[in-house]
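User: Please predict the structure of the protein below. I'd like the answer in structure-token form so I can feed it into my own downstream comparison script.

Assistant: Understood. Taking the following sequence of 389 residues as input:
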Amino acid sequence: MDSSPSASRVAELLLAGPRGRRLLLEYALASELAQHPVRSEDSFGQAVIYAAHWLDPDVIGGRALRMQSAFGWFDSLFGDVAAELDIPEVTATEVAERLGAVELLEPTPVVLRNALVAAVDSARYWQEPDGADILASTPEMSGALQRVAHHITAPPHTTWWCTPVDISAQYALQWEDILPKTVPDDVHAALLTARRRERAEEHIARTERDPDPTANWSGEWGSHPPLTLPSSTRLLGDGSPAGLWLVEDSLGWEQAVSVELIVPKGMSVFEIENAADWAKLCARFPIEVTAQKRHDWFRTTGRAGRWVVPDWVQVAEHYDGVHLQVGAYLGAAGVAIPVDDSTGTASVIAGWNPDETYWFSSDIAYDQEHIQWVLVDAGADMVWKPAST
């Protein structure tokens, strides 16, 4: 396979973060299912289901498990009926051994997209990682997943994961039942309003919430810019916006409208290429969110301490937008990213879809032409198609 620095860099990012490792797991599952559609008891896929079951915090807590994959739903109800189910205890070592025997599919845009969709959709920042994420993070799985990472990262299909925003082709989405966004006349005022709300939430959280990070509290766990601001993604090879596919914790939307975002040349965009870039952004423009984030982010990262996010008011004074590259998302989303060791602060990239750019300028505009998209059954997959076709 290609050993160029770009391929090595993508592989390194995939292995570094929970979303990247989940993508590798999903790719391996797809490879086995493509060759063996009927899953046997000694298959890799069945081993993943069993091992993920016993590692899942929900199952350990006696609740129901529903493990999602881009290649099918695996539903097993536990809790009250757990005693009636004979679930084998499969170790991560056994899973890794079975993965080693899986013949991996050659990378294609569709297979890679499906694995990426599954990794993004299964993200969660308000509770512990699920069993599949925990399984993929075990030392026993490291070597087996490395094989998958180096197999899939040869150009050209994954090269775009680590490329900057292309301002000449950016597309925004309007989802069904959600009010369309507008470009604020005064972006600075909109950002100030959002910052006042965040500071008020922090004050309330300090006053009312238990400072113990293990306490049963939850709140606003995202760290992206205000959702009222315009955001956009690129087009994929099939002509569909990446944002149609790459949605964290999706709500099952089946319709959307895309519109091109007209971005003037010369816009200054901060590129988040990796965890270090996010740390720099937080260190340069910090706003503390410890009280409002500590419970959710402790559950998702296991870290207790001070938390900060970027102050988007300050960021917007220097940049017209911020772009989260897919590679950075796969390598760093959901991870406790150190920001300042001297003050014990860290941050989390949470709730921000990969390849999404948020814009801080009133000089951008929405085009007049809209495209209606619908999610349709294409046999093996559900795919987004223009409504006219």
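That's the full token string. Residues 61-84 have pLDDT under 50 and may be disordered.
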